[in-house]
Amino acid sequence: MPCTEKRARLLLARGRARVHRLVPLVIRLVDRQAAACDFQPLRIKLDPGSKTTGVALVRDVESVDASTGEIHSGVAVINLLDLVHRGRQISEALTARRQMRRRRRSNLRCRAPRFLNRGNKKSGWIAPSLQHRVDTAMAWVRRIQRWAPVRAISSELVRFDMQALQNPEISGVEYQQGTLFGYELREYLMRGKRVQGFGTGDMVRAEVPKGVKAGVHVGRVAVRASGSFNIQTHQGGISGVVQGISHKHCRVTQRNDGYGYFFNRADHTGREQVWPKASDAAHPALYLPAMNGRVSRAI
Questions:
Q1: What are the pLDDT digits (tens) for 238-254?
Q2: pLDDT in tens, 66-114
Q3: How many Å apart are CA 215 and CA 205, to the nearest integer?
Q4: Where are the domains of the chain?
Q5: Distance in angstroms (rounded) separating the CA atoms of residues 22 and 147
Q6: How close are the terminal C-alpha atoms of the chain, in Å?
């Protein structure tokens, strides 16, 4: 039966007990038999977590209020444990092992690539980093059961319905309709920080009258709170960024709408106007046959 530190020291000093385990300290009485003793039932309480799991060994107690006669239930804490999981270390070790095996197959040995070896995962399989939490907690529960008269186990199961906390009347298909339901997605994405009426991604035309950056610059703008913008230009097949252009010299030619535009496809890809290919899918714009040889459109 668990006892205080002082009682444990006295039992060891008088030779009535022996050390059974050092960490955590477990002693065993040598002058009594289990059959001749009355044990107080204990309970193990678990609080699972992603990084640590709390374990508490408690004794259920009841007290009677003399004035009202009511029975109050409570617990007396016997011992507290904190299990620190090694999920991150296990995940990193598996990643290192996978990289070393891949290198051996590709550089050091003539082995065929192994990618159809997933049949060893039975139903109910979970990742080793997650299985470690379950195995560690159950192993310590079994240890404590050997050391103390445990009669019950309690575990905290925390499940929060965040949508129900915000809207208690939510039900059915409303769970699939998030906070952006009913909004135009493109309109929502365009809601960003604007400085002096300009937003990042807008097409602008900047006419700088004098200075090192004097001239006309046309392209997409990246705004700053200071009012000094960067303009990404694309002329003659050459891309560049003009930095430090004041907002006073800029004029919006088109607001950002989620698409990419240019006037000549050859300037962007170095090829003449042709029908789109599979390799063109990486570009944000969609090409159509132009009205004339020098114009390309996006839909």
A1: 788 999 999 999 999 88
A2: 888 888 888 888 888 899 998 889 999 999 998 888 887 777 666 666 6
A3: 10
A4: 43-115+128-140, 193-254, 259-299
A5: 13
A6: 78
